Amino acid sequence: MNNFTDILFEKKDGIAQITLNRPKVMNTFRWETIEDLITAFSDVAKDKTIGAVIVTGTGKAFCCGGDIKALQGLDRDSGRQWNHKLVELAMLMRRIPQPVIAAVNGYCIGGGNELNIFCDMSIASDKAVFGQGGPKIGGCPLWGGTQLLPRIVGEKMAREMIMLCNQYPAEEAKTIGLVNRVVPHEQLIEEAENYARRVLEMAPQSIQLAKLSLNYESDALYSSLLHGGALLEFVWESEQFREGTSAFVEKRLPNFDQFRK
């Protein structure tokens, strides 16, 4: 078994569980997190005994996107490598034959919500909260948010989520189609395991082919993910991103008005 730094990984009775394990920073992801996730999903892809994957988090958050300290350190070149790793993870999650089930235990914001939409199904705790936050810090959800989110919640709702950075409780997320089911917090993993065990009752060949076919049209968005990554290269070194992330770290409101003069 691999030695992971940022996740917990276990396999039991045909089900793999990947748990983001950086609770002190709301399970935000950094280089090590993405590498851990890629390693874990690659392991699952090769394991024929595994029929379903559950992704969840420790503490109060499922995932709140990229670690601000890691993002602040990006420049044009390192940002390009970061973007490529994110695309690699996203396409791996969509490519593995097993369904990926998100068990959203808390805050699911920014890149965390994009991680959620890369999952095949999503179960939410009644304590879960969803939203996008890129524009609040001078970023933009180009890692699936602008591509897949409109297909899930509809064009107008996706624009509201991205452009206003509102946050939505679990029941509202279910209403707009962002999650499949909402359950009491203490029943979250149990319900995710119920979904996974139900998958295990099905023919694995049928599940694999269904996932492949369901992804057929949206897989054509791969080039859009690459395009989004190229756009993000300009974001990482921009003054507006520096202002937004600095304001976040300093716990103040960003002064974006200066860029409208």
From TrEMBL:
GO terms for cellular component: cytosol. It comes from the Bacteria. Transmembrane segments: none annotated. One of its GO terms (biological process) is menaquinone biosynthetic process. One of its GO terms (molecular function) is 1,4-dihydroxy-2-naphthoyl-CoA synthase activity. PANTHER family: 1,4-DIHYDROXY-2-NAPHTHOYL-COA SYNTHASE, PEROXISOMAL, NUCLEOSIDE-DIPHOSPHATE-SUGAR EPIMERASE. Belongs to the enoyl-CoA hydratase/isomerase family. This is 1,4-dihydroxy-6-naphthoate synthase.
